[in-house]
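USER:
Try writing one entry.

ASSISTANT:
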Amino acid sequence: MTNRNLTDGTHSAPVAVVTGAGSGIGRAVAEAMLSAGYRVALAGRREAPLRETAGANANALVVPTDVTVADEVKRLFDRTVEEWGRVDVLFNNAGIPGPAVSVDDLNEADWDAVVAVNLSAAMLCAREAVRTMKRQTPQGGRIINNGSIAAHSPRPQSVAYATTKHAITGLTKSIELDGRKFQISCGQIDIGNTATQIATVLATGSGAKQADGSTMREPVFPVEDAARAVLFMADLPASSNVLSMVITAAGMPFVGRG
C-alpha cells in the first residue's frame, strides 16, 4: 500500500490493527503507523497503557482485548470495522517470553500459557483478519506476524518460546498461501535484541546466557528502527510482499550462534 493507499488505489487512510500495542515493539509500531497517517486499533489486555500509546491522536482506537479469547478477538475486529469500515493491516505482535528453563523443568501450565499467547492468539487474530479482508470491498489486506530470531536459532532454556516462534513461520506461510486468491498477503518479521524493557537485561548486568554456558552482554538497537521495518512491510503495494525479514542489533551473537 505505497503512499498508504488502499489496495484499489484510493487515498483513504488505511486501517491497521496492532496487538500488544501497550508497550515495547507493539507501541512503537502503533506510534509509527499513527505518525504515518494510518488509523490504528490498539489492542492489549490493559486499557491504561493503550491510552498512553494513543495519546491525543484522533486516529487511534483503544480496544482492550485478551487475544487468547476468540470472542474478544472477534469483538476487536468488529469494533474496528464499525469505526472505520475495513482492516488493511494486522500486526500480529502480542507475545510473552515464557520461563527460562530446560525442557525437563518446564511445567504444563507455563507451556500452555506461552502457546496460548504466542501461537493460538496469533491464529485467532489472523483468522478474524482474513475473514474481514475477504468480505470487505476492495478485498484484501496484509498480515505481518512478529516472529523472532528464535524462529531461526533458539537461546538456551527457551523451549516454549522457541517452539512457538518456529510455529509462527508455519502460520505465516500457510496464511500467505491460503490468502493468495483473496489478495491477502502475509509476512513475518524476526527481530533480535531491540531495546525494549524485556531486552534491556541483554545489554546490562550479566547479560544473556550463551550456547556454551557462558553469559555475555549483547548489543541492542532502538525499537523505533524495528517499527520502521514493520512500517516498510505494511506500506508495500499490494503487488509486493516481504515474506520474511530478519532485523537485529549490529554485532549481536546470532550468525554463528553456538
User: Anything to note?
Assistant: The chain has one domain: 2-248. The chain has seven helices and nine strands. The beta strands are 15-19, 39-44, 60-64, 89-92, 141-146, 184-192, 208-209, 215-216, 244-248.
